[in-house]
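Researcher: Going back to the complex we discussed earlier. I've cleaned up the inputs and rechecked each line, so this should be the final set. Can you rerun the prediction on the complete assembly and write out the structure?
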Amino acid sequence: MIKAGIVGGTGYTGVELLRLLAAHPDVELTAITSRGEKGRTVADLFPNLRGRVDLRFVEPDEAVLTACDVVFFATPNGTAMQSAPALLAAGVRVIDLAADFRLRQAAEWEHWYGMKHACPELLAEAVYGLPEVNREAIRSARLVANPGCYPTAVQLGFLPLLEAGLVEPDSLIADAKSGVSGAGRKAEVGILLCEAGDSFKAYAVPGHRHLPEIRQGLAAASGAPVDLVFVPHLTPMIRGIHATLYATLRDPGAAVDLQALFEQRYANEPFVDVLPSKSHPETRSVRGANQCRLAVHRPQNGKTVVVLSVIDNLVKGAAGQAVQNMNLMFGLAENAGLNGIALLP
Amino acid sequence: MIKAGIVGGTGYTGVELLRLLAAHPDVELTAITSRGEKGRTVADLFPNLRGRVDLRFVEPDEAVLTACDVVFFATPNGTAMQSAPALLAAGVRVIDLAADFRLRQAAEWEHWYGMKHACPELLAEAVYGLPEVNREAIRSARLVANPGCYPTAVQLGFLPLLEAGLVEPDSLIADAKSGVSGAGRKAEVGILLCEAGDSFKAYAVPGHRHLPEIRQGLAAASGAPVDLVFVPHLTPMIRGIHATLYATLRDPGAAVDLQALFEQRYANEPFVDVLPSKSHPETRSVRGANQCRLAVHRPQNGKTVVVLSVIDNLVKGAAGQAVQNMNLMFGLAENAGLNGIALLP
Amino acid sequence: MIKAGIVGGTGYTGVELLRLLAAHPDVELTAITSRGEKGRTVADLFPNLRGRVDLRFVEPDEAVLTACDVVFFATPNGTAMQSAPALLAAGVRVIDLAADFRLRQAAEWEHWYGMKHACPELLAEAVYGLPEVNREAIRSARLVANPGCYPTAVQLGFLPLLEAGLVEPDSLIADAKSGVSGAGRKAEVGILLCEAGDSFKAYAVPGHRHLPEIRQGLAAASGAPVDLVFVPHLTPMIRGIHATLYATLRDPGAAVDLQALFEQRYANEPFVDVLPSKSHPETRSVRGANQCRLAVHRPQNGKTVVVLSVIDNLVKGAAGQAVQNMNLMFGLAENAGLNGIALLP
Amino acid sequence: MIKAGIVGGTGYTGVELLRLLAAHPDVELTAITSRGEKGRTVADLFPNLRGRVDLRFVEPDEAVLTACDVVFFATPNGTAMQSAPALLAAGVRVIDLAADFRLRQAAEWEHWYGMKHACPELLAEAVYGLPEVNREAIRSARLVANPGCYPTAVQLGFLPLLEAGLVEPDSLIADAKSGVSGAGRKAEVGILLCEAGDSFKAYAVPGHRHLPEIRQGLAAASGAPVDLVFVPHLTPMIRGIHATLYATLRDPGAAVDLQALFEQRYANEPFVDVLPSKSHPETRSVRGANQCRLAVHRPQNGKTVVVLSVIDNLVKGAAGQAVQNMNLMFGLAENAGLNGIALLP
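Model: Rerun complete. Updated structure for the full complex:
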């Protein structure tokens, strides 16, 4: 059994990690830390876990964490980078669900996250945990930067087009819609039911922190810098991201079978599902499941390709992908503990 | 492997049965029938099942169904009673998720359901599938009447009080609130998002079909007829029932430890969870899980006991309880295939 | 034009008061105060008011407020009582939307609200602003205690029965369900969309502050103390209260026309609507409107009367009722500024 | 008083027209027709109108309608064109809220709507009822084609850019999100609360009927054909459209004050509100109000302009705009009956 610890398990990625790890056949939940909830039982905070998780929150403490084989950070940005070096030195594998290790360039990270990076020397070693791109590197990684929720949905949708060089890399648009759980479990007025419910809005149009992360991944796929407009929106639902992606064909006159392109790209991917032609994936079709579902369209047979990409932001967009990465890092079946079927309705 | 068939799998109890049975370690899904969707793949109708269920809907056909070990009816009321006799005669076990076999008295059934009963002779044999009451009878049953969603939540909440003779059986009140999935997957205006969303109402106050079913069960528990007022409400959510139950103590002056009473009654029940004193269960704490969570209160230490009971109407209130019954009938572990943790948030 | 001021207008009752007063033909909005938002335009905080309200939030300041004819307190409990004496002394009428002046007995108030009352001498003078009971007293009041949202819905439902002496006053049950706006516009985790959405729960079953307020009103109506069990619930919607009320007939054998009783009681009430027999009011039928809709049932012709009562908690349950009270206090048409039709869907 | 009739008032645009017209100071509601609900009171179907609208639904009958000064068609596509010629001949003004008279070209209409047009000769006379473009023509129109909901939000957002010739007309993208009421009040499974709730999806990506309508309007504004990709989505809320619009600057290097451009274009428009720079309009800020709110962005100062446009699909996107058109046609104040403030929360 793999001994797993969670740092900062009081948010939505924390409780989702707990749900997945508690049911994982090869994992023993060893410790979960929270300064604020120290001493409280996990099941008291998250009643869905009553009878399934017996742990209490404990202080984040190096001794507790170095006894683990793997430590997940479900913490705000800037936390994992404080502890990761010591844990790695102690032989513990680290999976950060926040952004600390997602960008290659420390300067760019510091620009977008507004703080000094505590261990820029680890950025080169950290593996960006998108298995559909970096599967082999993840297997041997000590430190995995789990991708953001928007970046997962957007990259999986654009990758086939960019890898094949079919679209212009300088006019990409990602219009993304997220359920409110993407904003976390924080006492903020803007995400109250009475503020975010029965309403819809864009936010952060001038610039969102997931933009550089997406650009970095798409540039790698296309072998050249990309120009991307990324507009996130808040949708009155709990879970789910729907990314609607627009790209311009380099050669609109050339014959190209987009459906086949997508199906082939993901033919062997256990967690990416390309829907039949003319489909429209719904976010609820992945609710609670570690799954990305995609559809590709070319409206009016014009120059613009439209890709529809849905994930559960807390699963394939966070905790599920983290478990998928853990499975790869420890040589387990990639889908171990990840076979839950989406809850519909 | 147990060969399982589902008759009428196009509704919400159908898709939930499919979700549970597809992941059940001891079950092989053999057939699913639907006249209206004949030939269509199940995953086309329910995209959450893509890659997990390969079946197509077929005509309801005796040969197909008699090849099963067990057949679930996820059909409208009045359907199972047409086919059950032949299936039973062929040695197939039958679990009806509708109401055909829930009432002992054919006359009462015919009064509430407005049709002639097709096989009243089976009513005496049918076992009411509430394992917390009838576990042993279910083990050997050929025909199980799976309880209604409201009746499950209401009976589990009242049972400890009535069995102990602590409350007046003639002044029970069940104020119950259901998510909209309880109304089924039907093209009706009243359950549109724009009709049932962001609004709350009672319905069927003059009389609801679950009333006689609940009365029958409570009368058995108390050993005497009961007088029950049952008021169901429609809540703007998808899954979940919350029953708020009121009963009058026979002897308000006597010392009684209600918390201990409930904890002892359900000490060995795998799917009933008595919360600590002063708790308020949320429906989301059981979303997707085969679980009933209960809390018992005595406000202002007065003569009225208030019990709060929550279930997922599609799981412990329908498909999950049906699988629990199947597990008992076939000698499997009672929780086989039922260990999913509720999805929160 | 009546000069109106609002103290503490950053919550939901505040913005609703602003919506109603900005469109009121006889009112000039003079000042709105908020320490936290001082200097900010009202329309910046509440974009629905762009182009309709030009005010900025100012410090609560006696000079500003004494220039008003009437001051509304849309503040937390315990605020209005600090300022009311000075305002009244300056000849300003005061309407408190919080609880400071709702209970007759200072000791009871202090017990439930956990603080010392600042001006208990005003409790006898304050008029409880339920026009359907106290219309004449309100007309001449200097100080009105605007009723709570639950108390409005519950009292209007029980009044006809208690005033007529038809039901036992010692076994009343009010099972009430509120939209989340009833909890206010506060940065609290429990009312986040991801906590309160798609879920249902009871709360404060051991005791809620609206209990003594309701009991006081019902006791006055029945001429005797009442025994009431009050269970509030949180419903995943924004606005609306649905109270389901249970009372036991004193003489179940006597002929009584409950429908006529209710229709006669409210025949001349502009804001109480008794629905036809067998009806089930929906909260959305009063969304945004100063209206209570009622239906009365007697299930199975038994001993229990069931009353269904709906209001918009922010309108008839708060800001609308406050404007209705102001209209009465200033000799305006009772419905001035209150003719908005409910928004459906 | 203007005598107004409504044909087909049982849907959401119908009830919204009733809400607005019942409160309109210059209108007398004369008749409302529905074959299916003939004889039923309007208030029975729409309880928000109890006490405010006394009419019953009547058969659509020429005599009833020719007694009106204006008739609104809130009917499915293809209905108004059957009756409009006779009504116009009788001197009745006609406002069609459906699509029958929106497209200039009969052939294009017949292609997208799949039926023969009944009176193509009226297409040239019909005025497209977008007052921000056609105000003067509307004043003298006999027949107004009320714009679609998406077309209203999309055109108002793109117009300033296209009229000024600032963006490429051949690479426009409109990513639009609608509340479920846009799909109407129809008994269809896809818009049940349990299907459309807590989920998000695109639909009609291959082609939506509002595409030619939008293209026609944008081409007129730009003086040249436009190439537009239009992707509509279904959002789990009741009312509201949010259009996120993308256009490419013709000369990204040129200095241009987009904020000033938008503010000047709509400086005198009573129902279009340009938000301050860097804003993100929310659909709830226009809930129930005849208002479009816009914000314009240029992310990272790049070549792409992003416009955010919100309306209430039932008000500025349907019934409110129809009343605005009626006001213009009858020489009333343009905002008569349209001053309701949006309901927030």
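Model: Worth noting: Residues 66 and 87 of chain C are 6 Å apart (CA to CA).
Researcher: Good, that matches what I expected from the previous run.
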